[in-house]
Amino acid sequence: MGLTGVGKSTFIQDLTGNPDIPVGKASDLHRVTVEVQDYVLLYAAHGITYEIHLIDSPGFDDDIMGDVEVLKNIATYINITYKMKETLAGVLYLHDITKAKIGGVGKRNIRMLERLIGLDKFENCAIVTTKWQLVDLETAEARETSLRTDKDFFGSMLQTERRGHDASLCRYSPKNRQRALEIIKPFLKKKFTAEISLQMVASNGPKLPLGKTEAGKLAAENLEQLAQLQEENQQLRKARETLSKQFDESLYLEFKQKSKELRRKIRLHKAGRWIMRFTIVGGAVVATVLTLGPGAAAFAREPAYEKAVSGQRRDEKRAKANLEKDLQRKAKSRGGLLSAADPQWLWDSKVKSMEDLRSDRYSIKSASSEDLELKIAQTGGVVGFAAEEGMAESDLFLRDMKDISDDSFSEDSD
């Protein structure tokens, strides 16, 4: 998280080695990241290979009404993550050390951060100061001290009254992947539930509308201050309507049930196709050995079979797309917060096999991922990822190179 231009996308680009992640320039006055983006990095540490999801979020900037949309998008992603039985490991809040002062927008971002994650959960957050290479060290260190001690800035997070519950403060300059890894390492063994999820979607929580959460109240206060300065208009009405929305749990559960049924159907299709392949190829081998004649005809039938089932795979992919469109249509008509969701967020995308790591749904891999995949597959290793309480980490062995994930929708092969 952090203001526009502070270096969030640059940090992820450096960490992953992926040059294709869009990065803004200091002269840009608009958000480069307008939606919540999920990037995946594989990283080996503590004898475990971690599947790390790096969530690049848009900044809360000068546009107060736009901030309501940003809050909606971030809250929807966090809440879906919670509902998917996955956990957040931590939050990185990036701050530009070249800025001599933190203005009203910056302070509003800090207060929003506090309320999103929870006033009693600061140990799950790191304040990352950026762009140290652009200012002299003495000036930067003086600003860092002010950030650490001033309660209007990050002092309330870095110096709490609860021992061991302070946020951490660290420095980062671009083009330093090792430093970026050092910043995220402390979070690999952590997990927590954001306060906004406890307030909106937890089964034993109050299930509040967005505007009644602590973060939503802050957005609503800023919105009402703006309303006093200008006439009522459509944008203000839309922002207020957004804050009145709740997480549409019934629609979420409907999608999850239908997607589960679709996965089951596709698994049966795949099993049937492999049985047919073994029948065709096995029969052809026997016939070839015995007669050297009929076997050739059987082998000739295999490409014809593959051509026939390619249509079935296309139908499976089409069914998935139709299910996602149905979700979007219903979410829009109901006006709930799921209208802000990317349907891809609702598919279980945790790594189940080595083939998953090459799937199109994984936005990126680190520069070393290919070597890392091979090493895991050859030696057998442990893959760690956010999971349900009590769920054991899964072993990944060489046979997994050939495994088929439950939610693979490739047109090319099974």
Highlighted features:
single chain, 414 residues, alpha/beta, four-stranded mixed β-sheet, three-stranded parallel β-sheet, 12 helices, 47% helix, globular
Short description:
The chain has 414 residues and is an alpha/beta fold. The chain has helices at 8-16, 64-83, 104-117, 137-149, 155-158, 177-184, 195-200, 214-227, 234-243, 249-291, 294-334, 369-379, and strands at residues 37-45, 48-56, 91-96, 125-130, 168-172, 381-384, 394-396.
Description:
This protein has a four-stranded mixed sheet with strand order 1-2-6-7. The chain has helices at residues 8-16, 64-83, 104-117, 137-149, 155-158, 177-184, 195-200, 214-227, 234-243, 249-291, 294-334, 369-379; strands at 37-45, 48-56, 91-96, 125-130, 168-172, 381-384, 394-396. By secondary structure, the protein is α/β, with parallel strands linked by helices.
